[in-house]
């Protein structure tokens, strides 16, 4: 049994990003999970799933087997009515993952990199029409984010340089993956966005500013960044034109974990230029940001744009590992126009609602007005839902994860996303890599 996942704070604020979230209810859960006779995915009554893709199966492109370690993902409108593009990351490390992303001519950055992205094109019935490599030769592709111009920014969660772990090139970058006509992927990093242990990004559609989270593994922990592009109007390949990278400083708050109360707001957020964005000698989080230092946070993960703000997640903080305080997750909101940062939600454990689980990770807004949260912890793994009123319920459980908290199988969920029409939830099981399409009475 893991720590209880609970939520405190203005949960309804998280749903401010989409009109459907305002127009519909998102009230209550969907009932108890029903054991899956096939032993894959337990869902509430009335829901069903389809397996779209499994690691090791042949890709329809003939480029090789489906790669391992399914992680961050997005679902975007495809060519034709009801069609969907799924863009899926593969977090393959130097020695991890049975199946690497196959090297494809014209799409490979570093021949020694095992990670990358794959693309699935689905019809309106969630039948897979095509499946192919989107980019290859990258490393530890964890999350990322969609752009307003219809591409995917995939993030490398590593700082390995050329010569480390057998790599031929430096890693720790963001890459743009295009899959529409005229959006041909260029397998070269967007170096101006910095070299660090990237997790996720979100783009302000009005200004083109890119917000970035850093999931650093050791103390001092990661930073929250913004990239101000030289071509603020955006468009495919616009981020390659350069810009300025800055890191967030909250005066008097060196560690965000020290803030315990939802609703706490800081009106004087500062942005400090990063001394060396390419981290040629020193990782960015270790660099000298001058008087006042810089603000850190442990396990900065998910990041998304909602209406006039950017939201980002700290998956957990542990004082035993160097954080200022302990929590099981925070969600923060930054309002660029007001330069205001607010702690919106805190995850457990000190309220009455408890569920078996811990370490909230990827999050997404549901068309019904709910929030979906992927669990990344020990023991049983779930996708949890959260209502506007803060009610927490289990939406899915990995029926294959038979490990114990002491020796769990690594069956976390990742990459939860909804189709543009809101009828299907897509989600990955990290290992063994599996992509599911889940349908059911979402408007309940």
TrEMBL record:
* The protein's name in its UniProt record: PhoX family protein
Recorded source organism is: Streptomyces glaucosporus
């Amino acid at each position: 049994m893991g720590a209880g996942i609970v939520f405190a704070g203005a949960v309804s604020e998280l749903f401010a990003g989409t009109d459907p979230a305002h127009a519909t209810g998102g009230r209550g859960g969907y009932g108890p999970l029903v054991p899956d006779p096939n032993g894959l995915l337990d869902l509430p009554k009335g829901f069903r799933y389809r397996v779209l893709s499994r690691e090791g199966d042949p890709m329809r492109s003939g480029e090789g087997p489906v790669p391992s370690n399914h992680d961050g993902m997005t679902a975007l409108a495809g060519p034709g009515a009801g069609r969907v593009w799924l863009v899926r990351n593969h977090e393959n490390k130097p020695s991890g993952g049975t199946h690497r992303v196959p090297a494809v001519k014209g799409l490979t950055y570093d021949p020694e990199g095992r990670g990358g992205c794959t693309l699935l094109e689905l019809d309106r019935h969630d039948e897979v029409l095509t499946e192919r490599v989107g980019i290859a030769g990258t490393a530890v592709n964890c999350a990322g984010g969609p752009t307003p111009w219809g591409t995917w920014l995939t993030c490398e969660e590593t700082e390995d340089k050329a010569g480390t772990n057998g790599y031929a090139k430096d890693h720790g970058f963001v890459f743009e993956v295009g899959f529409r006509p005229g959006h041909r992927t260029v397998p070269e990093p967007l170096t101006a966005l910095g070299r660090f242990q990237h997790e996720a990004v979100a783009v302000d559609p009005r200004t083109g500013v890119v917000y970035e989270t850093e999931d650093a593994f050791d103390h001092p922990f990661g930073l929250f960044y913004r990239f101000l592009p030289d071509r603020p109007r955006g468009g495919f390949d616009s981020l390659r034109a350069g810009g300025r990278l800055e890191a967030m400083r909250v005066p008097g708050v060196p560690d965000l974990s020290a803030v315990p109360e939802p609703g706490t707001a800081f009106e004087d957020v500062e942005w400090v230029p990063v001394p060396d964005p390419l981290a040629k000698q020193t990782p960015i989080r270790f660099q000298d940001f001058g008087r006042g230092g810089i603000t850190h946070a442990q396990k900065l993960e998910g990041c998304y744009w909602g209406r006039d703000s950017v939201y980002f997640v700290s998956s957990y903080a542990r004082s035993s590992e160097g954080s200022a305080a302990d929590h099981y997750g925070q969600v923060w909101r930054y309002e660029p126009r007001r330069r205001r940062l607010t702690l919106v939600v805190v995850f457990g454990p000190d309220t009455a609602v408890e569920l078996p689980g811990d370490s909230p990770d990827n999050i997404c807004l549901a068309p019904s007005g709910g929030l979906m949260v992927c669990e990344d912890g020990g023991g049983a793994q779930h996708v949890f839902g959260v209502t506007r009123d803060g009610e927490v319920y289990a939406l899915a459980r990995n029926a294959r994860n038979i490990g114990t908290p002491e020796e769990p199988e690594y069956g976390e969920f990742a990459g939860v996303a909804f189709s543009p029409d809101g009828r299907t939830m897509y989600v990955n099981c990290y290992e063994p890599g599996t992509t599911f399409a889940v349908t059911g009475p979402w408007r309940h």
